[in-house]
Design brief:
alpha/beta; Rossmann fold; two-stranded antiparallel ribbon; 7 strands; 56% helix; 15% strand; globular
Length: 192
């Protein structure tokens, strides 16, 4: 089975992914693939040509500088997606095909619905939290101001829309222990 794992930024999706891996799932991490792709020489050159040399530090993409550009400009965000998306999707499909024998393959893709990749999944699990907790986590984790945290949330698909499309969801408004219990329960249901 292929499970799509998604949710808004700072909803706990990475924690859920890590626990699913501990339980025996094979994880395909779209963010990790994106980082590998963005550091390839071919893609770096395209990014530099389109976004300027200030986004490159010592031969690597400075994601924070790029984030500052794309979250303020929708056209720049679309341009970035047009450069990165086809390469990332190709790598994800390759990895799925290479691991078809696994009991549970988890596609950990933050923007699963926004990028239209839910077609790759048998089921989709959304991790959600309330916006106040989400903003607090973004501010703490990424050191961002509240206004930018809200902009990042606002450019993502509304959580209610994700929940309406999902097969399963985990609400992460409590503590870590509760979240991990919920993951174990869903995992046991999925591998039956």
């Amino acid at each position: 089975m292929i499970l799509g794992l998604t949710g808004g930024i700072a909803n706990g999706k990475s924690t859920v992914s890590k626990k699913l891996k501990e339980l025996g799932s094979y994880i395909i991490d779209a963010d990790k693939i994106s980082k590998e792709v963005s550091d390839s020489l071919e893609v770096l050159k395209k990014l530099e040509a389109n976004f300027g040399s200030e986004i490159i530090d010592n031969g690597h993409l400075n994601r924070q500088k790029l984030r500052g550009i794309i979250f303020k400009n929708k056209k720049k965000r679309e341009l970035l997606n047009n450069i990165m998306h086809p390469v990332i999707v190709g790598k994800i499909i390759e990895e799925i095909e290479s691991n078809r024998g696994e009991k549970l393959i988890v596609l950990d893709i933050p923007l699963l619905y926004e990028t239209g990749l839910e077609y790759l999944c048998d089921k989709v699990l959304v991790v959600c939290t309330n916006e106040e907790i989400q903003i607090g986590r973004i501010k703490t984790r990424d050191g961002l101001e509240e206004a930018l945290a809200k902009k990042i949330i606002d450019v993502q698909m509304p959580m209610m829309e994700k929940l309406n499309k999902a097969d399963l969801y985990i609400e992460n408004n409590e503590n870590l222990e509760e979240l991990l219990k919920k993951v174990e329960l869903i995992y046991s249901q999925l591998i039956k």
